[in-house]
Amino acid sequence: MGKAKAARRLKENEAQAVTRTIRVSPQKLNLVAAMIRGKKVDKALAELEFSNKRISDTVKKTLESAIANAENNHDLDVDQLVVAEAYVGKSIVAKRFMVRGRGRASRIEKPFSHLTIVVREVEEEAA
């Protein structure tokens, strides 16, 4: 008995990985995600490896997880994978207060983000 298995949201030639509650603003994370969108996974990994952005290590880990999911769970060929989608979502915002001059205080917001990476297997065209 029990609940029926949910239908797969992705196509048969796709796999994804999600990292939630990353301590960086969505705007900054989206800059790194935009670097790898549409690229082959080996080029994307190389670009993340040598990026100066602090968050590129987390994005690299998520991409490696998506590649591992494609290989182990969905039997896709790693050499033909492309980053089909890399999108960022907003998460919680931690609010803090900082002491200012003249007995005042101002609010400091510390945003968090979600990252989803979808990789797709593409057939190489014969040249």
From TrEMBL:
<comment type="function">
    <text>The globular domain of the protein is located near the polypeptide exit tunnel on the outside of the subunit, while an extended beta-hairpin is found that lines the wall of the exit tunnel in the center of the 70S ribosome.</text>
</comment>
<dbReference type="InterPro" id="IPR018260">
    <property type="entry name" value="Ribosomal_uL22_CS"/>
</dbReference>
<dbReference type="GO" id="GO:0022625">
    <property type="term" value="C:cytosolic large ribosomal subunit"/>
</dbReference>
<dbReference type="GO" id="GO:0006412">
    <property type="term" value="P:translation"/>
</dbReference>
<dbReference type="GO" id="GO:0003735">
    <property type="term" value="F:structural constituent of ribosome"/>
</dbReference>
<comment type="function">
    <text>This protein binds specifically to 23S rRNA; its binding is stimulated by other ribosomal proteins, e.g., L4, L17, and L20. It is important during the early stages of 50S assembly. It makes multiple contacts with different domains of the 23S rRNA in the assembled 50S subunit and ribosome.</text>
</comment>
<keyword id="KW-0687">Ribonucleoprotein</keyword>
<keyword id="KW-0699">rRNA-binding</keyword>
<dbReference type="GO" id="GO:0019843">
    <property type="term" value="F:rRNA binding"/>
</dbReference>
<dbReference type="InterPro" id="IPR001063">
    <property type="entry name" value="Ribosomal_uL22"/>
</dbReference>
<protein>
    <recommendedName>
        <fullName>Large ribosomal subunit protein uL22</fullName>
    </recommendedName>
</protein>
<comment type="similarity">
    <text>Belongs to the universal ribosomal protein uL22 family.</text>
</comment>
<comment type="subunit">
    <text>Part of the 50S ribosomal subunit.</text>
</comment>
<keyword id="KW-0694">RNA-binding</keyword>
<dbReference type="Pfam" id="PF00237">
    <property type="entry name" value="Ribosomal_L22"/>
</dbReference>
<keyword id="KW-0689">Ribosomal protein</keyword>
<dbReference type="InterPro" id="IPR005727">
    <property type="entry name" value="Ribosomal_uL22_bac/chlpt-type"/>
</dbReference>
<dbReference type="InterPro" id="IPR047867">
    <property type="entry name" value="Ribosomal_uL22_bac/org-type"/>
</dbReference>
<dbReference type="InterPro" id="IPR036394">
    <property type="entry name" value="Ribosomal_uL22_sf"/>
</dbReference>
